[in-house]
Amino acid sequence: MSVKVPEATVAAVVAPAGKAAVGPPRGRDLKASIVVGLLLVLAMEVASRFVPDYVMPSPVIVARSLQELLSTDLTHVAITLGRLLIAIVFSMFVGVTIGLIMGVSDRFGHYLRALVIIDTGIPALSWMLVAVFWFKEPETRIFFILTVILLPFYALNVYEGMRAIPKDWVDMMESFRPSRLQMMRYLIVPHIVPYIFLTTKSVIGYAIRMVIFAELVASAVGIGSRMSLSQSMFRIDQVLAWTFLLVVLNLVIQWLAAVSERRLLKWRTDVKVR
Known about the structure:
Elements lengths: L6 H8 L11 H23 L10 H14 L1 H31 L4 H12 L3 H11 L3 H26 L3 H9 L4 H39 L4 H10 L3 H29 L10
């Protein structure tokens, strides 16, 4: 006879009680980013005084180009962000599902794991060239490229997260004879959520680089295509302006992911190593 799992008991074990400890001051990270940014701008200014503008323009020229791009090419920025968001969300859901199957299924887990590992060994350039041959629509090409590149990160990290579940927790749960749904809800899902956020924060910068590369190869719209146009016109000031904008977008998306993680995992106690 099965025994119903006491929800309060399981929740208390899975989500440790207590107010989260204060981690390293986040203000220091912001200060460090500002200082490094100012040093880079200073280095550009110094370099621009010794080389021609087509090699290294001054920060003032780059700022003017950025203002020009923001006033005329916001549509391309929105298209790139939309492609990035759709690919990350889709890769997250599918990758997490595959990772869960890899962790709980003895019949299919080994085959899925082998398939994912093979995928990680295929270069991104190979997927881009294959997408050009397989798909006619640029949107389909870019979506395919980003998905096959990002999905394995989620699948493998979720799988490793399931392997990292303490055996004592599993034994405790099994002592109540829970159903698979209860085991998934009260133990597995709360444990792998931090791994999902970690993966998302890790792949954001990589995904941005990939979507720009994919747009440069397979699309006529988006930031990547505009950077290619700037290169063909020998406008290095626009190339640097787009680069600066991409860095800012990366920082903003990373910040949003960190805020979401802190809110959803506010029960988690931060560990500070001395």
